[in-house]
Amino acid sequence: MGEAPLQKLEDSLLQEQSVTLWVKREDLLHPHISGNKWRKLKYNLQEAKQQGYDTLLTFGGAYSNHIAATAAAGREYGFNTIGIIRGEEHLPLNPTLSFATSCGMQLHYISREKYRLKNEPDFLEELQRQFGKVYLLPEGGTNLLAVKGCTEIVQDIPLEYDYICCAAGTGGTLAGIVASLEGEKQVLGFPALKGGEFLQQEVEELVIAYGGQSYSNWQLITDYHFGGYAKIKPELIAFMEQFKQQHYIPLEPVYTGKMFYGLFDLIRKGYFKRGSTIVAVHTGGLQGNVGFKERLGVQV
Ligand SMILES: *Cc1c(COP(=O)(O)O)cnc(C)c1O
Predict the structure, then answer these.
(1) Which end is more exposed in the chain, N or C (fewer Cβ atoms within 10 Å of the end residue's Cβ)?
(2) What is the residue extent of each domain of the chain?
(3) Best mutation site among 143, 147, 173 for ligand 1 pocket (most ligand atoms within 8 Å of CB)
(4) Does the predicted model carry a pTM greater than 0.90?
(5) Alpha carbon distance 128, 121 (integer Å)
(6) Residues 69-91: pLDDT tens digits?
(7) Ligand 1: centre distance to CA 65 (Å)
């Protein structure tokens, strides 16, 4: 397992606003089990092993970072993996799914309608009947063991800071950070989806289920979804490109690009008190960039 070092950013905007910004490079944790997906899988893999499972089954879209990470983890830790993929098969496989199959993952495609049942007990039982004894990981890998893994993101930051920021999909990572801080500091979550307000309740429930307590030192910043999940706008791509050139940190357009774009916009608008120190968590996910490049003809 690699390290997730802290990298301090130098930028004239940060100087003007007297804000210090560190990036927690979770993207460097592992070459294939990227960023927060590694944190989320860690205790699930241990649990699966302890309970004697030899197969992991999970869900995702065709470009899912979680599908890629689960496939890689299966290969590395000796599990068979089954990916239930939303939508129809398209050949040749995109880079995410071709990576997953190269790790040995078995892919099964289901319709979008059926996919909506992914958390329904009846459907999960049906899958268990079809595939035998499998360790089920929910979409995005989010469950309480995933939250536990994500608490370690925070334990791994030997710095004084005032704010911590992360991108949010299912909210599992955000929940782990909030639970770990136990009311200290301010936590900002940037939903990648349009209508990300629904995460308020989801994260609240995860935090309570995990630690038995709720906290009010966190909030969602819902203005930077860029039209929704996997929607890509030229100004976002331009920002990511400039960010990479300036800081040598690659971003992707689904999660981390939006978060950093939003964070810099908030800094520009004077959202953070002068003298504040911010830690921004780079949750990884760079595998998806190969697919974006192909699909959209953009260089990301
Ligand atoms: C999956 C993912 C997220 C979202 O994590 P959640 O725990 O589902 O909120 C954020 N960033 C990246 C890069 C991801 O791959």
Answers:
(1) N
(2) 6-31+144-296, 35-141
(3) 173
(4) yes
(5) 10
(6) 999 999 999 999 999 999 999 99
(7) 8
